[in-house]
């Protein structure tokens, strides 16, 4: 843990308390600004189902912490996760985010016990699961998912929402919803298909068969797979720290253009990239980065 891992977070006018589904919508609050404190130990009375730390300079870590249910993703957990992500998003000192679970489970899916009694009308009218997507639409800072153990159903979908997955070779990914008489509902059929192609995605989703972290790496679902949990965590932190060391402006732009490739055709995507590339000539950090190269010194980013 980084010794100075203690910071005061201003939650920028958003309600920081967790516990109600309403808060997961990232809506501005009329309440006064609150200061949330968290420490390197992860102890934070605000959260019951996650731990929030700053293990390296510029790196915010969220650890899913519902061990008795293998980190099953209940609505209160997702509400806390959204709150923590939003807090990191609005904390200037946080430049990259790591999302992880335990060695045994990243997350074993949406909470089956919570879902079992749902009716069509209650799920539909309350937009059940919709708030999960806040992560992909609201978060501008890069998010790495470090996956060990089970990443099933909603757990797999949550990992797929991250910008990059690192995992152990033995991690257990899968979309087993078919075995429960349902289908992926948090983007799995779309993101997994984009990652592995239609044939493999069909096989995985129609059979509910799991795939290993090693396969996830081979198929391009995960960026890297590691031999041990310790290595996974160390390398994930190192990568997050590396990203945190670059210009925030360039990092945000890089994330934006890569994500656009998932939505646009090649021609539009390349044009979008070029526009953003041109725009970066207006940033101070582009001048600093290229100037520092010429002067053979380390760049001092201003995030301008
Ligand atoms: N939800 C709730 N509780 C869970 C879940 C879950 N997804 N997964 C595990 N648990 C609980 C178990 O019930 C058990 O609790 P208890 O001790 O009170 O009985 C505890 O966690 C430990 O689990 P196990 O004893 O089963 O542990 P094992 O090591 O034997 O097995 C497995 C681990 C293989 C991961 C097993 O727990 C399992 O199969 N879990 C369910 C996996 C699954 O099917 N996930 C998909 C859920 S559906 C989903 O995510 C859909 C998302 C999108 C929904 C969209 C709706 C609109």
From TrEMBL:
Keywords: Lyase. It comes from Podospora pseudopauciseta. PANTHER family: ENOYL-COA HYDRATASE, MITOCHONDRIAL, ENOYL-COA HYDRATASE-RELATED. The keyword Lyase applies. Belongs to the enoyl-CoA hydratase/isomerase family. SUPFAM superfamilies: ClpP/crotonase. InterPro entries: ClpP/crotonase-like_dom_sf, Enoyl-CoA_hyd/isom_CS, Enoyl-CoA_hydra/iso, Enoyl-CoA_hydra_C. This is Enoyl-CoA hydratase.
């Amino acid at each position: 843990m980084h010794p100075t891992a203690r910071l005061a977070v201003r939650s920028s006018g958003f309600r920081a308390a967790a516990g109600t589904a309403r808060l997961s919508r990232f809506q501005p609050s009329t309440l006064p600004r609150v200061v949330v404190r968290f420490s390197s130990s992860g102890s934070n009375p605000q959260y019951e189902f996650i731990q929030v730390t700053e293990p390296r300079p510029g790196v915010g870590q969220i650890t899913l912490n519902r061990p008795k249910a293998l980190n099953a993703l209940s609505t209160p957990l997702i509400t806390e996760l959204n709150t923590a992500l939003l807090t990191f998003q609005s904390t200037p000192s946080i430049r990259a985010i790591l999302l992880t679970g335990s060695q045994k489970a990243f997350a074993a899916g949406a909470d089956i016990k919570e879902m079992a009694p749902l009716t069509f009308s209650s799920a539909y009218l309350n937009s059940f699961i919709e708030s999960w997507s806040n992560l992909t639409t609201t978060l501008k800072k890069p998010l790495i998912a470090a996956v060990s153990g089970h990443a099933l159903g909603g757990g797999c979908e949550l990992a797929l929402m991250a910008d990059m997955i690192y995992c152990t070779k033995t991690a257990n990914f899968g979309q087993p919803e078919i075995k429960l008489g349902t289908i992926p509902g948090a983007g799995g059929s779309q993101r997994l298909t984009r990652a592995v192609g239609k044939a493999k995605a069909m096989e995985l989703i129609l059979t509910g068969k799991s795939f290993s972290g090693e396969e996830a790496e081979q198929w391009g679902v995960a960026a890297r797979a590691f031999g041990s949990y310790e290595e996974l965590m160390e390398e994930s932190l190192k990568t997050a720290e590396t990203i945190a060391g670059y210009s925030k402006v360039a990092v945000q732009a890089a994330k934006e253009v890569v994500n656009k490739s998932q939505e646009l055709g090649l021609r539009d995507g390349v044009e979008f990239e070029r526009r953003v590339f041109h725009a970066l000539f207006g940033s101070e950090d582009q001048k600093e980065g290229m100037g520092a190269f010429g002067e053979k010194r380390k760049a001092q980013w201003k995030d301008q």
